[in-house]
Amino acid sequence: MIEKQASCEDDQEPALLPVAEARRRLFASLKPIEDSIELPVSEALYRVLAADIVSPVNVPPQANSAMDGYALNRASIPKHGEASLQVIGTAWAGQPFTGELAEGQAVRIFTGGIMPAGCDTVVIQEHVRRVGEVSGELGTIDIDSDVVAGKNVRQAGEDVAEAQMVLPRGRQLHAADIGVLASLGIARVRVVRTLKVAFFSTGDELFALDEHVPGTPLAPGKLFDSNRYTMAALLRGLHVDFIDMGIVRDNEDDTRRVLLAASADADVVISSGGVSAGDADFVTRVFHEVGQVSFWKLAMRPGRPLAYGTIGQAAFFGLPGNPVAVMVTFLEFVQPALKHLAGMHDIDSLMLPARCLSNLRKSPGRVEYQRGIMRLDEQGELVVESTGKQGAGRLSSMSAANCLIVIASEADGVQAGDRVQVQPFHGLLPG
Ligand code: AMP
Ligand code: MG
């Protein structure tokens, strides 16, 4: 009988590193970059704050009306019955009323108008009876006295208070954050410099899409290099600067040359293919020669061969060649690593419990990331179905999916009806 060597067909292989341990090593080895630049707020979308933002002001700056109505002092009207008030002026948004109010008086006020001195409450115009002839906005109004003190008033600083910590360092700015910064009068922010990521595909079988003459068939044995396109799209969504180093053929010299050039130029280098143990797998071989290997074989599927370590100053990820494995290892390892390097704190992707409607095959000993389609069923429960066959070469299964079904290492399959964990692509796939 032939003595078989370890391979990705094995259910159990003691040398495989658990995913959690690989992630621990990954984060322990990556030092967030410290260089920062200052940018106008209008150009800071998706950038990562390099310093805490503390509010220099109150927002809103003064108490103002949340509605169109009449501003008054609650204490100056009786507790019960009706009250008649004399309207002595108007507070417009941007044009305050500066006069003094006496007992029994009110001020016409519009949304955003500053509360006149001595007023603490706004009665909306729909709850007021105007009495007799009203000249302009002036005249007399009747109101019910069951008015709640402080009603319809936005207090100074109720959105953001002066000296309050508004956005912490490490925050990736989204649209609302940009607006909040503008509302504080902050025109420029200090952000972490953009990460530089170089990537390439490896394989003698690969054909570059941009060299293809439409309508001509590919030579036998060739296939289009899709991984570089997937990778570029994923990186674009992460708002990093990227350098496409093209296709590297399966030989040691080209692999070494490109790995060294890329790592001299970028913070992070990513390759696909050539990380198994075959004769044409030059990435692992050259990586062992020119870099510091941290891990290589993981207890996960797809993605068992995932080389990680450093080459010079750069972090290096040698992703597997199979297109689904590229995406899964990118989402589970490269993406959190890039976020960590960029100083982001919020890097874990969302995991939701769902009821699985499919039987899923799996062997214990490795975490599996299967492609799923999740939805709410008629009862409003989150359910998930498999996309079908799960081969790591079937990139279309990734395209059909809207989540990954993450099945724990010790599980030996899933029965329809079981609870599983899903990672929704919304939030996981960068955008
Ligand atoms: P490898 O790990 O290099 O043996 O590649 C594993 C499988 O993925 C092979 O079937 C390759 O043809 C395929 N593959 C590798 N790189 C790419 C790529 N850039 N685009 C599409 N398929 C690829
Ligand atoms: Mg290959």
Keywords summarizing the entry:
elongated; 31% strand; 431 residues; alpha/beta
Q: Any overview of this molecule?
A:
This protein is of the alpha/beta class and 431 residues long. The protein is built from eight helices and 26 strands. The chain has a six-stranded mixed beta sheet with strand order 7-4-6-5-9-8, with no helix packed on it. The protein has a six-stranded mixed beta sheet with strand order 16-13-17-21-20-18, sandwiched between helices. A hairpin with a 2-residue loop joins strand 8 and strand 9. It is elongated and about 105 Å long. The two termini are 52 Å apart. The mean pLDDT is 94. Bound molecules: adenosine monophosphate and magnesium ion. Magnesium ion (MG) binds next to loops. The site of magnesium ion (MG) has 6 residues, from loops.
Q: Would you kindly provide a brief summary of this structure?
A:
The protein has 431 residues and is of the alpha/beta class. Helices cover 19% and strands 31% of the residues.
User: What level of helicity do the residues show?
Assistant: 10-25%
Shape from CA axes? elongated
Q: What proportion strand?
A: 25-35%
Largest sheet: 6 strands, mixed
Q: What is the structural class?
A: alpha/beta
Number of helices: 8
The strand count comes to: 26
Estimated radius of gyration: 31 Å
Segments where pLDDT lies below 50 for 5+ residues? none
Distance between the termini: 52 Å
User: How would you describe the oligomerization state of the chains in this entry?
Assistant: single chain
Estimate the mean pLDDT confidence: 94
The hetero compounds bound to this protein are:
adenosine monophosphate, magnesium ion
The side-by-side strand order for the widest beta sheet comes to 7-4-6-5-9-8
